[in-house]
């Protein structure tokens, strides 16, 4: 308990940054993921190719490597100077977006082709076919794996600790320097993560119930 | 078939190109050729009663020493030759020799700062020699022999930098150090106008300094001198140390016998200490005295 209360400032700052990284990256990952997922099933070959290339390139790269690129490679390009938190958010977003896209694609596949054909038959263009017919049904089917992706994202944020973002993953390094026993610190950090993931699981249950339909 | 061969060739070529990047580092070879004229000899028939650490070493036949490997001049691993060099490494060899273990009986393990206490407490290593500052909070978990070296927080800046000459010029600049390390916590607490950047290792900070994303790297001056010596065209150490850090040898807290033994070795081995210093850190030209052992 002492370990926690003597260093509450650090725990608060750390988890505040973790939640910030998570929330912003989740929004961007979902946005990019929806677009890329749609690209992968689009009727335009170039878009399909681009979607496939992006997913396979980024998904096959370790997150640490992506972070390395943005934290150490990007500044060497001497473009617009960005804070490390922003760079970490970019890395997390484009990394997680590939998983979101693939999860969504499996959702699209659960919707029978007949529905897309029917939508086209009544004259709906591709974007409307997706947003009005396919996606509402697909989302319902992919809530559990989608939540897994976001839980993974929440935990992946700790990688950013090595790249100058003072989030939950950096708490241990700070405290072991202050002489706190590392294992206790890690247990506290783990406990908070369990709570946060618990919240996400509750959200999953809520969404599943809300979007459930009787078939 | 032909297509596949071309693909293989491309992969092989890119693999070659990738490995080419990790070229050998020319510096840090300071003490590698000192084996022939070692300033200490391997002791024989050592007996150390009441030291569980020593008993474990004897039973195992080897010594496991925790070190750093990214600090030129102190604890450095040359990636190309696999050779370790530096002041801390030599001190570790000296302790092992006094305990009756020659250099080839030592297994070095690189342990990052944040894991030192747990590595010692869990018994992953017998003792730790790697810019390990003695402080009261740490003494609650581990024991310290020494100090064997005294330094303090310093600043490393680009060689062409005329603005930063001491810690008083840090306002408005960005300073880099290892994640959560004491120096960076000191900057955050006592230099509120200074921005901070934290990476896992000092070498990453030095990289950031070279490409201009940070203005200064801060940590113990002894470590910074090593980096400056490695690349004097681009880097320099400025100002005087503005804190006091005493390096000790970390070992299990309960092992008083080993601690006393090591302290005695430091107290009696003044000449050996000087010889080791002159061969490693002393090459940068700075002269220092061996600090007095503070036994407790």
Automatic annotation (TrEMBL), chain A:
- Name the membrane topology term: Multi-pass membrane protein
> SUPFAM superfamilies recorded for this chain?
MetI-like (SSF161098)
Question: What does the UniProt keyword field contain?
Answer: Amino-acid transport, Cell membrane, Membrane, Transmembrane, Transmembrane helix, Transport
Q: GO CC terms for this protein?
A: ATP-binding cassette (ABC) transporter complex
Reply yes or no: does the keyword Coiled coil apply.
no
An example GO BP is: amino acid transport
- Domain of life the protein comes from: Bacteria
Q: Which residues cross the membrane?
A: 20-41, 53-72, 84-101, 182-203
Outline the extent of the ABC transmembrane type-1 domain. Answer: 15-204
Q: Where in the cell is it found?
A: Cell membrane
Keyword Membrane, does the record have it?
A: yes
One matching Pfam family, short form? BPD_transp_1
Picking any one GO molecular function of the record gives: transmembrane transporter activity
NCBIfam families (alphabetical): HEQRo_perm_3TM (TIGR01726)
Task: Give the family, as the similarity comment puts it.
Answer: Belongs to the binding-protein-dependent transport system permease family. HisMQ subfamily.
Protein name listed in UniProt: Amino acid ABC transporter permease
This protein's species is: Cryobacterium algoritolerans
TrEMBL record, chain B:
- Annotated GO CC locations: extracellular region; outer membrane-bounded periplasmic space
Signal peptide span per the entry? Answer: 1-27
Asked whether the keyword Ribonucleoprotein is assigned, the reply is no
Any single biological process term in GO: amino acid transport
Q: Where is the Solute-binding protein family 3/N-terminal domain?
A: 62-284
Keyword line:
Signal, Transport
Would you identify the family this protein belongs to, as annotated? Belongs to the bacterial solute-binding protein 3 family.
Annotated protein name in UniProt? Glutamate ABC transporter substrate-binding protein
Query: Which species does this protein come from?
Result: Cryobacterium algoritolerans
């Amino acid at each position: 308990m002492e370990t926690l209360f003597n260093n509450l400032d650090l725990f608060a700052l750390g988890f505040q940054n973790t939640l910030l990284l998570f929330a912003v990256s989740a929004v961007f990952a979902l946005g990019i993921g929806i677009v890329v997922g749609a690209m992968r099933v689009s009727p335009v070959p170039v878009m399909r190719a681009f979607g496939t290339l992006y997913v396979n390139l980024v998904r096959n790269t370790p997150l640490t490597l992506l972070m390395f690129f943005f934290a150490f490679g990007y500044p060497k390009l001497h473009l617009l100077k960005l804070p490390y938190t922003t760079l970490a958010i970019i890395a997390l977003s484009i990394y997680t977006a590939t998983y979101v896209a693939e999860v969504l694609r499996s959702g699209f596949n659960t919707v029978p082709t007949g529905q897309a054909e029917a939508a086209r038959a009544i004259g709906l263009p591709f974007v409307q076919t997706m947003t009005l017919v396919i996606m509402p049904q697909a989302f319902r089917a992919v809530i559990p794996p989608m939540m897994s992706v976001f839980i993974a994202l929440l935990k992946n944020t700790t990688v950013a600790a090595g790249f100058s973002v003072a989030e939950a993953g950096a708490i241990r390094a700070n405290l072991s320097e202050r002489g706190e026993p590392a294992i206790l610190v890690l247990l506290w950090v783990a406990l908070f993560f369990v709570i946060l993931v618990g919240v996400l699981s509750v959200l999953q249950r809520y969404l599943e119930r809300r979007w459930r339909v009787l078939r | 078939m032909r297509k596949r061969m071309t693909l293989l060739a491309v992969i092989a070529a890119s693999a070659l190109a990738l490995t080419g990047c990790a070229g050998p580092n020319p510096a840090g070879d300071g003490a590698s050729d000192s084996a022939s004229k070692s300033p200490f000899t391997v002791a024989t028939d050592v007996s150390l009663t009441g030291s569980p650490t020593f008993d474990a070493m004897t039973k195992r036949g080897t010594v496991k020493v925790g070190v750093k490997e990214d600090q030129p001049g102190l604890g450095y691993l040359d990636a190309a030759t696999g050779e370790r060099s530096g002041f801390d490494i030599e001190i570790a060899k000296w302790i092992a020799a006094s305990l009756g273990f020659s250099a080839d009986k030592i297994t070095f393990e690189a342990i990052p700062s944040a894991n030192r206490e747990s590595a010692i407490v869990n018994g992953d290593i017998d003792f730790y020699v790697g810019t390990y500052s003695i402080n009261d909070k740490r003494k609650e978990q581990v024991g310290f022999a020494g100090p064997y070296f005294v330094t303090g927080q310093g600043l490393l800046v680009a060689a062409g930098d005329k603005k930063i000459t001491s810690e008083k010029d840090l306002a408005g600049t960005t300073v880099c150090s290892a994640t959560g390390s004491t120096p960076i916590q000191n900057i955050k607490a006592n230099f509120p106008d200074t921005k901070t950047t934290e990476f896992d290792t000092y070498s990453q900070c030095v990289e950031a300094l070279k490409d201009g994303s940070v203005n200064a790297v801060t940590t113990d001056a002894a470590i910074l001198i090593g980096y400056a010596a490695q690349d004097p065209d681009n880097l320099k150490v400025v100002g005087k140390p503005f804190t006091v850090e005493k390096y000790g040898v970390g070992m299990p807290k309960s092992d008083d016998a080993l601690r006393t033994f090591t302290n005695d070795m430091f107290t009696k081995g003044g000449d050996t200490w000087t010889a080791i210093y002159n061969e490693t850190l002393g090459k940068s030209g700075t002269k220092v005295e061996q600090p007095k052992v503070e036994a407790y």
